[in-house]
Structure formats: structure tokens, C-alpha cells
Amino acid sequence: MNASAPPLISIVTINRNDADGLRRTLTSTVTQREADYEQIVVDGASTDGSIDVVRDPALRVDRWVSEPDSGVYDAQNKGVRLARGRFVLFMNSGDHFLNDQSLAMATARLDDAELQSFDIVVRGYKEIHGGRDFLKRAPDTPTFYYFARDTLPHQSTFIRKDLFDRYGEYDTSLKIVADWKAFMLWICRHNCSYRHHPLPLSVFYGDGLSSRPDFRDRLLAERETVLRAEFPAFVDDARETDAIREAASQLDALRRSKLIRLFQSAGLLWRF
Predict the structure, then answer these.
(1) Across the chain, what does the average pLDDT equal?
(2) Strand bridging mode 96-97 / 194-205
(3) In the CATH hierarchy, which fold is given to the domain comprising 9-230?
């Protein structure tokens, strides 16, 4: 990369006391082939050897800072301020690219859309697929109702950096869903352009904090707060849509039940 020319992509990695995860992430990045990127690390004053990882010249960190912060989104905001690229990709400590061609594959497909999502491989969720890897697809068209129950995968979503200049940084009053809030506002309120590239880019591990029940409860509470503050007229509609969708799913499960089909074939139950 020409030191005087800004890169296409700024990869921002935040970390606190996860030296092993940080090494995994940075090793994944430095092995990317034919990719125009810079690597930024924002460390939250780690004491576990993470700084030794950052300083390893083989891992090629372009800029880094290690200091106390007020949480994930304070750290990500610091990363945005350090970024020089046209796009920002948050590949936080522990996450990594699918293979050494992932970034080249993605950059060959990036266009002028302000938000561009690829798919993501989810690994380690014991409650889903028995812990086997599965592919989580980003939406083709993210709607308000999509954001009412889900979000874009930040490890596979390229964000035009100027969105932060135009609409502000992540909301640091939120501890879990500030990226979800930003995605929803950019698309549903500000009509930012979006594109889905249906190819896997990165790997996310589902055996950490996000899989804990107390995390899920807090996530839902924060989302409810944001929805009522930003889209109060749609909150009840979103809940009603979810209830209809759940009822339809249960009805479909009944239709596929062997026992129900046996009763129907015997004339003991109407078809529905």
C-alpha cells in the first residue's frame, strides 16, 4: 500500500484482554492476498499480553492505541476516527476471514453502495445444528421488520466511512445494540444504499458472551428502548408481525407432522 494514498478498506479490530483472539484475527488479516487495506487495533488497556501481539511486526498493524474506554462502541468510534479507508470493516478480536482470498473476493465486488453485506459462517453454537458450522445469510433487502428482529453481520458488512461523518458515531449509551441501531437508522430513516453479496466472507464464533441468556435479555431490552425512541408508531406493528410469523411457523409445523397427516388420510381431521 502506498503510504500517501488512503486504502480502500480500514479493518478495525477492538480488543481487551483477549491476546489469543487478537492473534487469530490479525493472522487472518495479514494473510489476505491482493487486498488494499489498513489494519487498526483499538485496545482497552489490556494486561494479558495483547500489546505484545499488536507489536509483532509479522502481523502488520498500521495504527493502534491502547487506553481505557467506556465500552465496545467507544472503542469502535475511536477506530473510525483513526480510519483512512473509504470503507470500514469491524473485525473484532476473535473473528476472522473465511480464507486468505476472502478480502480480495470482497473488494473485487465492492461498488458505490454505502452499506455492503456478505454472508457469514457461524461456528460453535451448541444449541443450533449441534455446534456444526452453518451459513447465516445477510438479507437481500433489509426492511424495518427485518431490523425489528435481526441485524446485519458487522464482521461481513463494509460501511462507507462518510456515514459516520454525516450521521454521527455509535451511540455509546448502548452497551450491546449500537451497531444494530446505526444500521437500522442508516437504512430505514436515511435511505442509505445497500447491497447484498451472497458469498461468505468471515467466521463468527457463537460460544461467547452473545450466547448467554442474560445477554439476550439485555439485548432485547436495549432494542425495545431504541425502537420506542426512534420508531414509536411501528413498535406494536412489529410485535404483531412477529406474532403472525410465529403462528404461521407453528401451523406449518403442524402440516408437516406425520401424526396430523395420518389423521387427515384416515378422514379424522380436515386438511388445513
Answers:
(1) 88
(2) antiparallel
(3) Spore Coat Polysaccharide Biosynthesis Protein SpsA; Chain A (3.90.550)
Residues in the chain: 272
Range with lowest mean pLDDT among 44-53, 127-136, 182-191: 127-136
Bridge partner list, 106: none
Please state, in angstroms and rounded to a whole number, the distance separating the CA atoms of residues 94 and 26: 9
Helix runs in 56-187, H state only: 72-82, 102-107, 144-147, 162-167, 178-184
* Higher pLDDT, residue 267 or 220: 220
Q: What is the pTM of this model?
A: 0.85
Distance of CA 155 to the CA centre of its chain: 5
What residue spans of 83-118 are helical by DSSP H?
102-107
What whole-number distance in Å separates Cα of residue 70 and Cα of residue 61?
A: 23
Pairing status of strand 194-205 against strand 115-123: parallel
Under 8 Å between Cβ of 100 and 33: yes
User: Residue 54 corresponds to which cell in the numbers above?
Assistant: 499488536
Closest CA to 53 of 25, 75, 80: 25
Domain boundaries, the chain: 9-230, 235-272
**pLDDT class of 9 with cuts at 50, 70, 90:** very high
CA 89 to chain centre: 10
Confidence category of residue 44, pLDDT binned at 50, 70, 90: very high
> SS3 of 9, please?
strand
Quote the pLDDT of residue 180. 96
Question: Could you tell me the three cell numbers for 170?
Answer: 455509535
Does pLDDT of 16 surpass 70? yes
Can you name the residues that pair with 120 across neighbouring β-strands?
136, 202
